Amino acid sequence: MPKGRPNTMNNYGVLLNELGMDETFITPLREKYLQPITALLYPDWGGACLDSHKAFVVKYSLHEDLDLSSHYDNAEVTLNVSLGKDFTEGNLYFGDFSQEPTPVPKYIEIQHVGAQGLLHRGGQIHGALPIASGERWNLIIWMRSSAIRNQLCPMCNKKPELVEAEGFGDGFTETPEDDMPETVNLC
């Protein structure tokens, strides 16, 4: 069975597309349930037109990955669901946005409770503090909008040069130059 790393920072976990879960579970979850919420919460970041994703489960335990250092995601919007197990400590923390870093970043801590999820902008700097005991498993879904990222790559802040890729690739697609996402007026 194929075994890719979930991302460049986590060593333990599984890519859900390798288990055949993209079309049967993750895509319907994104399209039917998450996108109506992200359209309201993140209209300026492609929340209404999230057309691809990368989904994986990561594991934190005492003799493996304990924490996750500060980073931002290769996504417009991220869903992070604590799948639980018994663990102590390991809060999430959030800081500035990658486009607006400050010299002395300020962070807020969020307790990550089992069976609860958290939506956030992928470009928000965040991380996970070390767990003190037990194991924590998290479902992570990086949701992407080709209409947004075809204009500006979220990782390098440049106009992307597209290359062939399998599956969703990194969420870039061939779309007309003027195809921008619609926004939702909340006022």
TrEMBL record:
Keywords: Vitamin C
Entry keyword Transmembrane helix: no
A GO molecular function held by the record: L-ascorbic acid binding
This protein's record includes keyword Lyase: no
Positions of transmembrane segments: none
Domain Fe2OG dioxygenase: 51-145
InterPro entries named among the record's database cross-references: Oxoglu/Fe-dep_dioxygenase_dom (IPR005123)
PANTHER family reported in the protein's UniProt record: 2-OXOGLUTARATE AND IRON-DEPENDENT OXYGENASE DOMAIN-CONTAINING PROTEIN 2
Protein name stated in the entry: 2-oxoglutarate and iron dependent oxygenase domain containing 2
Organism, as annotated: Bubo bubo (Eurasian eagle-owl)
